[in-house]
């Protein structure tokens, strides 16, 4: 049975309360002396590598070899089919806080889940 939006919102509120209490009780997670500042200006150069050779090699392999590769390296081979969305990367980088390793919007910190990264990057098999 799917949860209602009210149930999901209540769970989110519980997690937020726990997070705020933990930070209040234990202090900040930054290393002593580290200051979290979002840069005022960011330059991002995005380049899509030519992956034709890798795609050709992957397509030549049979399912057994692909299975062995996937067992050893996980689903990394599927990244060769992902196109880089330059506008998305530039928009995301503006809000990335490297000190906290999360996105910061005003006073709100957000960290995408694996599923959200998969959706942003258009990866179907996560």
UniProtKB/TrEMBL annotation:
Ranges of residues in domain DUF7745: 62-124
Pfam families (UniProt xref): DUF7745
Top-level taxon of origin: Eukaryota
InterPro entries to which the protein is assigned, alphabetical: DUF7745
Protein name, as recorded: DUF7745 domain-containing protein
Species the sequence originates in: Gossypium anomalum
């Amino acid at each position: 049975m799917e949860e209602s939006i009210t149930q999901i919102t209540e769970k989110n509120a519980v997690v937020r309360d726990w997070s705020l209490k933990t930070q209040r009780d234990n202090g900040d997670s930054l290393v002593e002396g580290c200051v979290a500042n979002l840069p005022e200006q960011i330059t991002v150069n995005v380049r899509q590598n030519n992956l034709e050779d890798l795609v050709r090699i992957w397509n030549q392999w049979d399912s057994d070899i692909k299975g062995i590769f996937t067992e050893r390296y996980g689903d990394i081979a599927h990244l060769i089919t992902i196109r880089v969305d330059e506008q998305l990367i530039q928009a995301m980088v503006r809000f990335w806080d490297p000190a906290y390793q999360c996105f910061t919007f005003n006073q709100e910190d957000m960290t995408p889940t694996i599923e959200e990264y998969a959706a942003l990057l258009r990866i179907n098999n996560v």
